Prior knowledge:
Distance between the termini: 29 Å
Structural class: mainly alpha
Number of strands: 0
Oligomer: single chain
Number of helices: 11
Number of domains: 1
Shape: globular
Helix content: over 70%
Amino acid sequence: MDWIHIVVLSLLQGITEFLPVSSSAHLILPSQLLGWPDQGLAFDVAVHVGTLLAVLIAFRHEVVATAGGWFRHVFKREASAESRLGWAVIIGTLPAALIGYVLEDAIELYTRSALVIATSTIVFGLVLWWADAKGSRVYEMGRLDWKSALFIGCAQALALIPGTSRSGITITAALLLGFTRQSAARFSFLLSIPLILAAGTLKTVELVQTGTDTQWIDIAWGIGLSFVSAVLCIKLFLAALDRIGMLPFVIYRLVLGVVLFALFL
């Protein structure tokens, strides 16, 4: 890969993985507009590792506390706020994991088009705006129960449609349930950990099976750049969220969707 490909794709993955703007919509643009070659499985694994490390570092205290609380509940029957959050993450992960497993081939066949991405970018952007405007934003993350987690998890399954945005749709669902912006975003980020881990693991297995030659310098740059950009993105997003709300991201999605329609219709 050329260095410009490495830099652009790594930064795009690191930034858009956690913003409610759809990473899939952005990652198709360089190849579609500039004719860049496919970056390959090894690089996909690298940027997934980078974003996974970023969210683990950014939420290291929550991750350790949640994991510890969950294990204490499982093995010692000690219920706590942390154990409830751990169960919420598990419940919220199941719908996307199950639907993705069952419908993987259909999703790959019927949804990987610019038209689908443009449509979902606009439609779910408008739903995000509506949820942010109409949500009561009164509940903190401690209010999460299994019903809320399941609802958010079912919404997360919609992100299997490219252009939806995993973070965007989970934040939308949490806002619709009345959670604050901070709680919605934080649960969305925690919910990303199992799916990014699963996606990275599957790509790694596929990489090993195909026996593709690995360019280790490209891999190192991909991990490093996606990690740094993702950490900065998470920090800045959470710091600015209550002040700016979702409207800037909604406007961006609408513009992006219109551009995609103009380019590919």
